[in-house]
Amino acid sequence: MPDFSTFMLFAAASLVLTATPGPDMLLIASRSVSQGRCAGFLTYAGIAIGTYCHAVAAGLGLSQLFLAVPIAYEAIRWAGCIYLIYIAYKTIRSKGTAFAPSSALKRISNRRIFTEGLATNLINPKMALFVLALLPQFVAPSNGSMLLQMVILATVLNGVGFLVNGAVILLGGHIRRSAMLRFPKLPQYLLATVFTGLACRLALSTRP
Predict the structure, then answer these.
(1) Which of 50, 36, 27 is nearest to 157 (CA)?
(2) What angle do helix axes 146-182 and 23-35 make, rounded to 10 degrees?
(3) pTM of the predicted protein model
(4) Which of 39, 60, 93, 145 is 20 to 30 Å from the Cα of 170, by its Cα?
(5) Which pLDDT belongs to residue 165?
(6) CA angle, corner 63, sides to 66 and 125, nearest 5?
């Protein structure tokens, strides 16, 4: 198990990384604005589970597949683009005021919200490479199981991320109450725009 100083150093690095606005934070914020705080926390839960999956893959050496086999990286990247465009289309095609407080939970289930958060994290090959580049710097064979160390560090990363994104979710819920009164369809368009932007970002990214 990593020592205390390693934990503190990694926690500090995690704080800087999670506090920097990125695709995950943008998705969480848009979900919070469009569907409320519960949806924001469910989205973060999906992203957090995805982080664990990437950490386990890195611990088992699976993430190095992207470095050794370029076609694997490209296949997942384009599959991710297609999926994000699809859910953007489904969002924008929702009839009526899809995110009105009275109908949000009926139209989009908690399971779907969680699954989409998980999927957008898993289908991003850059996330796998990010975990592979960051976490091994804080583990050592002398500290025991490499896989266990990876999972522990992923827990620290998710814990710090929960604090940072929790603040974003609470703020997003406050904005939602104001936005829904003036522009009922705005959150729906916002969420579709975010998914489309994530797809474009993934499509235009280059292999590290």
Answers:
(1) 50
(2) 40
(3) 0.72
(4) 93
(5) 93
(6) 60
Rounded to whole angstroms, the Cα distance separating 185 from 198 reads: 21
Output the CA–CA distances (angstroms, integers) from residue 49 to 4, 70, 174, 189, in the order listed: 24, 25, 26, 27
Amino acid at residue number 62: L
- DSSP symbol at 96: S
| Torsion on CA atoms 65, 68, 74, 79, rounded to nearest 10 | -10
pLDDT band at 205 (very low <50, low <70, confident <90, very high): low
Q: In 3-state terms, what secondary structure has residue 15?
A: helix
| pLDDT digits 0-9 by tens, 56-68 | 988 887 666 666 7
Structure tokens at 102: 């009275």
Query: Between helices 146-182 and 37-60, what is the axis angle to 10°?
Result: 160
Token pair 């020592």: residue: 3
Distances (CA, A) of 171 to 10, 30, 34, 103, 176: 27, 11, 12, 22, 9
CA-to-CA distance for 39 and 45, rounded, in angstroms? 10
